[in-house]
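Service request form, structural biology core

Requester: graduate student, group of Dr. S.
Request type: structure prediction, single chain
Budget code: on file
Notes: please return the result as structure tokens.

Sequence provided:
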Amino acid sequence: MQEALMQQGLDITLFGMGIVFTFLLLLVICTTIMSRVMTRFFPEAEPAAVRSAAPAAQSTAGNARLRKIIEEAVKQHRNRRK
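Core staff response, request fulfilled:
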């Protein structure tokens, strides 16, 4: 009697796990297909690069300042290791 109940419990467990696995597999397949359809028929527009003269001057000064900061950090790091 108890063996029949154990077998029935195992059958129900495996059946339930099979249904969940099948559902998740179907969900992944559908999501992949939808993603490919969306990227194929509705591609993202590439953003237009807008440049002006003022930020270029600021970025050059910022790059020089950043370079000095990085050089000082490297020097401090090397001095600590000695």
